[in-house]
Design goal:
The complex is a heterodimer of chains A (557) and B (245).
Chain A: H1 31-35, H2 40-68, H3 79-98, H4 101-115, H5 123-146, H6 159-163, H7 168-195, H8 208-240, H9 253-287, H10 294-308, H11 323-351, H12 360-383, H13 385-391, H14 395-425, H15 431-458, H16 472-502, H17 542-556
Chain B: H1 26-61, H2 63-71, H3 75-100, H4 104-134, H5 146-149, H6 164-168, H7 170-203, H8 213-237
Classes of the chains: A mainly alpha (557), B mainly alpha (245).
């Protein structure tokens, strides 16, 4: 297999090519020019650095959890400490990594460019959202350093309000603050998408990446405030004993779960939808075809956002909710599978008869499609009431949402980072080692989480740090997989950092992609476009691109 | 006034110094700002929505406790406050109009009146809260149910006595009362802070030369805070004002 004939990558002549002297990175110098910037691209880079930092902290906790579970006995840490480990892992990964991952980094960088705008509608609010994120992250770290928190990431009452003596309020503050960061990002995106499109950029000419971010932003704007108020109520219940979640005073602990999951189930779609946007772009580019059923894929994002608000009770099927409402929520939950399947099928049809090449972003995208499908289908298992009663609170659920969140979203995030790395930095990452990293991640992931499906089906409960000896083989497999996965995540950090200085110069459009972002220089100018473009073709129009390059050649020649 | 010498058609080639470079036109900037404000208010609705949902649930469960607890609130003070807040909202609407027709003096006066009525609202609210503190109606360790269990012993003649276990649930009513009115008052205080800043800028003539977006958007916020109160007042004060009939 010769790498040269099976790739669409076309790089400029390395002996003469240079990074453009004027770009958003070189526009200003000094730390303050970054910390006080209003440029969406710089803020995206700030976000990229901070979420990577938190990803590795959350990942370290995952490693410790797997290490403890290597043996059936509780021998590495005390049970309380184990509770703090998985709580911190969940809180950091959900609120400080998954929710902002694609939107705040890649989305922040690309949405204005994809729409033909010079910046997001509210640059200062964009910067504020990063500072709020940092404040939330700092408070989380403070809670961690002061002794941790052991509520799990769900803050379930009355456990969190009456039975624990850890840093619940500090963590609650952290989530509250980080939530506003997410609200502001969503608000900025919605306004930008409505009001900042360039001439000719109709709704159905927008890239699907923008559509999926639009859907995710609606969820951020409508869901996150409800999380904020429920977290405030938990803090008040702890601090002054208001009784709203206290059964002794007539309060209802389940009310908390209704409020919490009203946000936190849509939050799952906040996490996955932007990833789906990345996959649409990547699959189209590396199949050289327009995304099949563009309109259906666009509307399926909105449908996921809409349905996502009406399924929250499936987290409470075993908690004494009424049977009739459980029935309704079970059906509604299964309904979410429809728009998700529309996406998977349309990507598959995009691949059909396309000229497929297997660059790194595409490998990650294939990983996404396979793993997300497994994760999504096991979600339908769990939506069925009878199965849910058997499987909920077991490792089956843990495996299910890790397939969606890690197998899905993290793969999409890495796919997107590799795909747009040349645009963000002007340099290519090293191709061979990054392909290796994609394969290692895929293998490591499956080895980690496939055994957990079996463990859960056999009845191993989640959140325990000891288990019967007969489960050990599967747990050892899982821990071994986690180690491989860890290597898979370390590799990109190393070679992406290397490529900042030594990577080949990418040129404007290394992938021969059609998006507006690929028609400008890499890295882009601070103002993105020297003059505002006029969109005169559909998204993913490869013929337009061909003609455009032909014309360029004739004018030069 | 030197700024008003250049009179052009509005929205057409009017140069305003507040125009931000990343917007193509001033119209786009104005629309983006006001759309952003509407979205922000949507998040506020969802934020208060959580509390309204809790209210709905507990009012249905503990109606018998919510009625006497609600009747301890003063309709006179609450009603006065409603009137004050509506007046404040009216002044704000006048301020928006004044900015649009570029009457600087009128704008400043309208904004000051808005602030004064807002402060009056907070003042009356403070009196009410203080009253509830004196009667041990603040939820927490100091909460006292005796006025609900035996109203006659406290010289209250127009209330039915309720059993102690139900009276405990009055605490939930008062928690919701403090949470909702407190959250509302917090929004008022933030609003008053912004008003002071707007007044200072209005005196400089910032908003009477064609750039009215901050006044408009703040107007939306202020009216939203008013509307929240228009829901809170009947829900908290007027549950059942004829308990003995």
């Amino acid at each position: 297999m010769s790498a040269t004939s099976t790739t669409i990558v076309t790089l400029p002549d390395q002996t003469t090519a240079t990074i453009p002297k004027k770009n958003y990175i070189s526009a200003e110098h000094g730390l303050l020019s970054w910390l006080l910037t209003g440029d969406h691209k710089r803020i995206a880079m700030l976000y990229l650095i901070s979420i990577t930092f938190f990803f590795f902290i959350g990942g370290a906790f995952a490693g410790l959890i797997r290490l403890e579970l290597l043996t059936p006995q509780p021998d590495l840490v005390a049970s309380d400490t184990y509770n703090k480990f998985f709580s911190m892992h969940g809180i950091i990964m959900v609120f400080l990594f998954l929710v902002p991952s694609v939107p705040a980094t890649i989305g922040n960088f690309l949405i204005p460019i994809m729409l033909g705008a010079r910046d997001l509608a509210f640059p200062k609010i964009n910067l504020l959202s990063w500072y709020l994120y940092l404040a939330g992250g700092t408070l989380t770290l403070a809670a961690l350093v002061l002794g941790g928190v052991d509520t799990g990431w769900t803050f379930t009452t009355p456990l969190s309000t009456h039975y624990l003596n850890t840093h619940v309020v500090t963590t609650a503050c952290a989530i509250f603050v980080a939530g506003f960061s997410s609200i502001f990002t969503g608000l900025n995106f919605i306004v930008t998408i409505h009001r900042m499109r360039c001439p000719g950029m109709t709704w159905f000419r927008m890239p699907l990446f923008v559509w999926s971010h639009y859907a995710a932003s609606i969820l951020m704007v409508l869901g996150t405030p409800v999380l904020a108020i429920s977290i405030v109520l938990v803090a008040l219940e702890r601090l002054i004993g208001i009784g709203v979640f206290d059964p002794n005073k007539g309060g209802d602990p389940l009310l908390f779960q209704h409020l919490f999951w009203f946000y936190s189930h849509p939050a799952v779609y906040i996490m996955i939808l932007p990833g789906m946007g990345v996959i649409s772009e990547v699959v189209s580019t590396f199949s050289r075809k327009r995304v099949f059923g563009y309109t259906a894929v666009a509307f399926s994002s909105v449908a996921i956002a809409l349905f996502g608000f009406f399924v929250w009770e499936h987290h409470m099927f075993i908690m004494g909710v009424s049977n009739y409402s459980a029935l309704v929520f079970s059906l509604l939950t299964m309904l979410v599978a429809v728009p998700s399947a529309i996406k998977i099928f349309n990507w598959a049809f995009t691949l059909q008869k396309g000229s497929i090449t297997f660059e790194t972003p595409m490998l990650y995208a294939f990983g996404f499609m396979g793993l997300f499908t497994i994760g999504g289908l096991t979600g339908v298992f769990l939506a069925a009431l009878g199965m849910d009663i058997q499987l909920t609170e077991t490792y089956f659920i843990v495996a299910h949402f890790h397939f969606v969140m890690v197998g899905g979203m993290l793969m999409a995030f890495l796919s997107g980072v590799h795909f747009w790395w040349p645009k963000m930095t002007g340099r290519m990452y090293p191709e061979q080692i990054s392909k290796l990293a994609a394969v290692v991640t895929f293998i490591g992931f499956n080895l980690t989480f496939m055994p957990q499906f079996i463990l859960g089906y056999l009845g191993m409960p989640r959140r325990y740090h000891a288990y019967p000896p007969e489960y050990q083989v599967l747990n050892v497999l899982s821990t071994a997989g986690a180690t491989v996965l860890g290597v898979g995540y370390m590799l990109p950090i190393l070679y992406l950092a290397w490529s900042l200085k030594y990577g080949p110069i990418a040129g404007n459009n290394p992938w021969q992609a059609t998006g507006l972002e690929w028609q400008i220089q890499s890295p882009p100018l601070t103002e993105n476009f020297t003059e505002i473009p006029v969109m005169d073709h559909e998204a993913y129009d490869y013929e337009w691109l061909e003609h455009k390059t032909q014309q360029e050649v004739t004018t030069v020649g | 006034m030197p700024r008003e010498t250049a009179v052009h058609e509005p929205h057409e080639h009017v140069f305003i110094p507040q125009h931000r470079h990343h917007f193509e036109t001033e119209e786009q900037q104005r629309e983006a700002g006001s759309f952003g404000m509407w979205l922000f208010l949507l998040t506020e609705i969802m934020f208060f929505g959580g509390l309204f949902f809790a209210y709905l649930l507990y009012r249905n469960w503990y109606y018998d406790a919510f009625v006497p607890a609600s009747n301890f609130l003063s309709v006179t003070l609450g009603g006065t406050n409603t009137a004050i807040l509506i007046t404040s909202g009216f002044c704000m609407a006048l301020a928006v109009w004044a900015a649009e027709v570029r009457k600087k003096q009128f704008l400043v006066i309208a904004l000051i009146l808005t602030t004064v009525f807002g402060l009056a609202f907070i003042g009356i609210k403070y009196v009410e809260w203080h009253d509830e503190w004196e009667h041990h109606h603040v939820p927490g360790a100091g909460f006292d149910i005796s006025e609900f269990v035996s109203p006659n012993a406290h010289g209250i003649t127009d209330q039915k006595a309720i059993p102690p276990d139900m009276a405990q649930h009055c605490q939930i009513f008062f928690f919701l009362y403090f949470a909702m009115t407190g959250m509302h008052a917090l929004h008022m205080i933030i609003g008053i802070g912004l008003l002071v800043w707007l007044i200072l800028r209005a005196q400089r003539g910032d908003f009477t030369a064609g750039y009215v977006a901050p006044i408009e958007n703040f107007g939306l916020y202020w009216h939203f805070v008013d509307i929240v109160w228009l829901f809170l007042f009947p829900l908290l004060y007027l549950i059942n004002r004829h308990p003995l009939k």
